[in-house]
Amino acid sequence: MERSGSPQAPGKDKPKPPWRSEGLPGSPGGRPKINWWRFVVTLLVVYAAFFVVSSFVDSGSVETISYTEFTKQVNAKNVKDIYAQGLSVEGNLRAAAKNPDQGNETYTKFQTEIPQFANTDQLDQQLSSGQVEITSKPLTRGFFSNLLLSLLPVLLLAGLWIWIMRRGASMMGGGLGGLGKSKAAKPVEAGRVRVTFDDVAGIDEVENELVEIVDYLKDPGKYRRLGAKLPKGVLLAGPPGTGKTLLARAVAGEAKVPFFSASASEFIEMIVGVGASRVRDLFEEARKVAPSIVFIDEIDAIGRARGGAGGIGGHDEREQTLNQILTEMDGFSGAEGVIVIGATNRPEVLDPALLRPGRFDRTVQVGLPDAAGRTAILAVHTRGVPLDGEVGLDQIARTTPGMTGADLANLVNEAALLAAKRGKEKVGSSDFADALEKLQLGAARSIVMPEEERTRTAFHEAGHALLGMLQPGADPVRKISIIPRGRALGVTLSTPDTDRYAYDEQYLRGRITGALGGMAAEQVVYGVITTGAENDLEQVTMIARGMVGRWGMSERVGPLTILPGDGAQPQASPATLATVDEEARRIVDECYERAVQVLSDNRDKLDAIVKALLEHETLDEAGAYAAAGLPAPGKFSEN
């Protein structure tokens, strides 16, 4: 197997830049690389030597004389000018004189100090009479002061020049000042990846798809002997919170190989070419420590199908980044020994070139866990949570259909928070029930409603509940509440006893009828309709349009997909779309008529539920059915 570099431990080799630069110092085809430290030191040494020599030359012509010699020259009117600062004096003579203190050495420039006891007024008169020009000017500074002040501008200019040169090199190679460097260049070392398949529960069928990859990374020779090749990429597709990232970390933890993690959005920048540079950098680092795993989360951010209206030809930043990923995964520079694991919530929008064999060889669907899977997930997340003996994870799993692993982890955490807030030593069933109610129904709001509004809300929720109780095959009513939660003034919760994966027309019509129960109850009791049914109507519209435009449950439209599920524009004529709207309206009208009829025929049950709600505000499953005078779920007749 060919590799661009031999396997090395992470962090022991300084990573090379992920770019080629031409025409820059040190780059292929450029000038020889400049040693900046040697250049700066040489500049300082030359400048200091020049400064020292010039200082000695200048200082050699200045004679230090005594104050007596100075006054003698002043009285002789031989002093031309002086420069004074404090008691220090420096000046020039009109004619050369001899200094008796220095062996009668001739001088014209001198410096001296005026004693503290000297009569400065008399000296000033003597200087004035001698027509001496007097100026107040700083004397020559010390050697180090002069050196520092002289070198400071040079150092600033040299530093600015070095910064500009390095900035230019990074702009040429790294995308404007290092923007092209990958933010995921450092791997998570195998010893620090503590997630294994023991931490992943509820999705055993997905684990089985990935165990083969782990086995290959542990013992590649077993597969090479039979001519099997390592998959280039695995795409994990599924709803948010189902454990796609956790699975990728578990693969790295089980295989004990370096794990590179990055989000697809990190590759996208406003400047074209930065994303491709980051991809090259990431794969180069991964190849250095191969075999390794590169995990790209939310890959649909850069892997969308090309050719849309979002880009401009081939110069779009997103397309260039995608092209670079395609090249790195299966091109002339194939990343041998590097497995790419991608995660997305929307696999239908990915580019076909990304999904073909040789790129992402496998697409693994990570779905919602079933009841047994939820029980296993709860067991994982409650490892460090002290549970009361009455807590049954099986019961909690049965009451949480449709919840993902992340939802269940949040449920356990909310229950633990509630137990701690209540001062308990262990988490009990009531804590889980209240936490589930908070997550499913929303947090309660402390507002005071007028009695009339409270009664109207009770009839609205009782209408939902009673229709759910009377509809054949409907989900059992779990809880009714007229306590305001979130944006809702009341909530009715219905969940199935077992997980459901397919729905027939009768069940969907029952869902629509139950959703219209609140509006129908207000119509039956008050003869008016309020704005409280806004959310109900949104659900009704979505289900009815799906029945007609997606699932073929209308004879007029037939088994056709008119309304794509991914939110794309419908590919149908205006007449067909009008037929879809007419059929959806027909289904809703029929369900609404049934809702009004059922509630009118069972007005006594409706009033009984309302009375119990006004008294208790919240009814659980047993209380709701007892108030309506109906048997337990599943035991009532289909009349």
UniProtKB/TrEMBL annotation:
Its EC number is 3.4.24.-. Its cofactor is Zn(2+). ATP binds at residues 238-245. This is ATP-dependent zinc metalloprotease FtsH. PANTHER family: ATP-DEPENDENT ZINC METALLOPROTEASE YME1L1, METALLOPROTEASE M41 FTSH. Residues 230-370 form the AAA+ ATPase domain. Zn(2+) binds at residues 460, 464, 536. Keywords: ATP-binding, Cell cycle, Cell division, Cell membrane, Hydrolase, Membrane, Metal-binding, Metalloprotease, Nucleotide-binding, Protease, Transmembrane, Transmembrane helix, Zinc. In the central section; belongs to the AAA ATPase family. The lineage of its organism: Bacteria, Bacillati, Actinomycetota, Actinomycetes, Streptosporangiales. Its main location: membrane. GO terms for molecular function: ATP binding; ATP hydrolysis activity; ATP-dependent peptidase activity; metalloendopeptidase activity; zinc ion binding. It comes from Nonomuraea pusilla. Residues 1-27 are annotated as: Disordered. One of its GO terms (biological process) is proteolysis. Binds 1 zinc ion per subunit.
